[in-house]
């Protein structure tokens, strides 16, 4: 079975949307990525850090979905990373109400020995030097290194970010971040400039407008499934990345053609994530539900114009 | 050959974009719709009105592409409708600098006798009562009536608009207009409410984010081709509508499955329209170019996940 290493936050989130609000619930990039990747036949391990306040039952949720947690350090005297945000009515923008780094401030990720030869490394959104230190721990070059990041690191650690971007095969960012990173408005031109920074594949996430996959002069566009209601967008991008990485790891095929399928799987899983608060919808997702939604994605996008 | 009646403006446009500006050039909804539909094997006729200032050579451009202009009235002592607009840097918003209705103010469309039994009627953006009067002139019920409109008519003639909407099979509007017309933010819910107003098919245009086709509980999503540069978005929506209507007319098949193909053709033709100022790109478009871009659309959207 292919091995997938995931580094990212495991955290408490408190979320407010027009549909309601939560207390501190399970969140974090590595959590969403792991839960999403767990829908595939893959040996996934999360590398992260939590405080002594983090409930064992949350860790059990990951273990129950088959995500190895040996790489999640528990700092007993520390407090878990906490993020709180509020979504506006259109769900496309949000205010961050609180960010308490806590144990994340001095996070030194340690990849468990068994996973230093992982096939795929998924670097969730974190300080770029932390992402780099995970790559540095790999004893064999992974078949594919995927990096997710955000505008925050472009603002405060651009050099470190550019340095780690050079070393990855795939980058996943949203449209505004692609524009900021490249200085280009056109996403086609932005993707080309980001290619030149290192990654052979550039995935640009456009939320409700879907996701674009660029590779050389080729492009693939996966729409998002139009939903009656987006309940809580938190974690959708990480769930996308987890589905993308999990599918590629499970198939062992990192060709551009198979990456198109991976984008569709990522979009499919993200469409579930937003249906309930936090990780709720992802915790009991069944293969049958995923299968049915893939069928919906086919109906949504496939057409029959014969070109001879 | 199937007959297609197109009603809409034939006009002068003056356009300013970040790439330059034009004097008065050929524009108007019926112009773009007609030029786009002319890429199909269809007998298309434009119904419109111009003033004595309108150059014969502009009318010849339509005739040369095979668009019948018997229904374009020329009011010698009148002036042609004029619109002027300026696009912002992101190309997604524009300011209207001038709107001179001129001969359009008292426009009484007259469908030529030969076209009163047309298979498809495409009602371009105009006062809804003018659109209705075209429907009223048809001696046989068209196989498909398609209506395009805009927020302006929702603001000043909502009752007339709702009345004509009841009588059409397909409505094409953009996302913001769908929200305004339905009072719903979610496009899925908006489409359902617009269904209930009459049209069995609802097409929601999202510009660079593509177009959605809704029918009962089914939905199809055609992305827009990611372009390096959008030179001038003027007419893209009408070109989409013209490709949609022209393809349906030429195939004689108005099923939902074939409408998916029509949306792809519409998107394909619109992707050419924005490459140059005004109608320039559409005037000398070849079948070969269209074919190549359809192939690009296939590569853009088609994937190969086997679902058994």
From TrEMBL, chains A, B:
Domain Carbohydrate kinase PfkB: residue ranges: 2-281
Keywords: Kinase, Transferase
InterPro entries to which the protein is assigned, alphabetical: Carboh/pur_kinase_PfkB_CS, PfkB_dom, Ribokinase-like
GO MF entry, a single one: kinase activity
SUPFAM superfamilies: Ribokinase-like
Matching PROSITE patterns: PFKB_KINASES_2
Pfam assignment, any one: PfkB
Gene Ontology CC terms, in alphabetical order: cytosol
Keyword Kinase: yes
PANTHER family assigned to the protein according to its UniProt record, in alphabetical order: RIBOKINASE, SUGAR KINASE
Protein name as annotated: Sugar/nucleoside kinase (Ribokinase family)
Organism of this sequence: Olleya aquimaris
């Amino acid at each position: 079975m292919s091995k997938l290493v995931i580094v990212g936050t495991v955290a408490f989130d408190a979320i407010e949307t027009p549909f309601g609000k939560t207390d501190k619930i399970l969140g974090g990039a590595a959590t969403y990525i792991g839960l999403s990747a767990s829908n595939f036949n893959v040996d996934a391990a999360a590398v992260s850090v939590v405080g002594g306040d983090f409930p064992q039952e949350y860790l059990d949720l990951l273990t129950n979905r088959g995500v190895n947690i040996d790489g999640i350090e528990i700092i007993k005297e520390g407090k878990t990373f906490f993020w709180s945000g509020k979504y506006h009515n259109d769900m496309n923008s949000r205010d961050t109400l609180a960010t308490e780094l806590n144990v994340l401030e001095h996070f030194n990720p340690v990849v468990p020995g068994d996973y230093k030869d992982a096939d795929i490394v998924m670097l969730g959104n974190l300080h770029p030097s932390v992402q780099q230190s995970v790559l540095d721990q790999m004893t064999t070059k992974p078949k594919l290194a995927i990096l997710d990041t955000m505008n925050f690191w472009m603002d405060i650690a651009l050099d470190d970010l550019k340095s780690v971007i050079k070393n990855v095969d795939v980058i996943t960012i949203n449209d505004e971040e692609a524009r900021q990173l490249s200085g280009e408005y056109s996403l086609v031109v932005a993707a080309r400039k980001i290619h030149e920074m290192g990654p052979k594949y550039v995935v640009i996430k456009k939320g409700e407008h879907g996701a674009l996959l660029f590779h050389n002069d080729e492009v693939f566009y996966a729409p998002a499934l139009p939903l009656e209601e987006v309940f809580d967008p938190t974690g959708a991008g990480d769930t996308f990345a987890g589905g993308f990485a999990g599918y590629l790891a499970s198939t062992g095929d990192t060709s551009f053609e198979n990456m198109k399928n991976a984008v569709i799987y990522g979009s499919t899983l993200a469409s579930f994530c937003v249906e309930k608060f936090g990780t709720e919808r992802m915790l009991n997702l069944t293969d049958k539900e995923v299968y049915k939604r893939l069928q919906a994605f086919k109906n949504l996008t496939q057409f029959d114009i014969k070109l001879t």
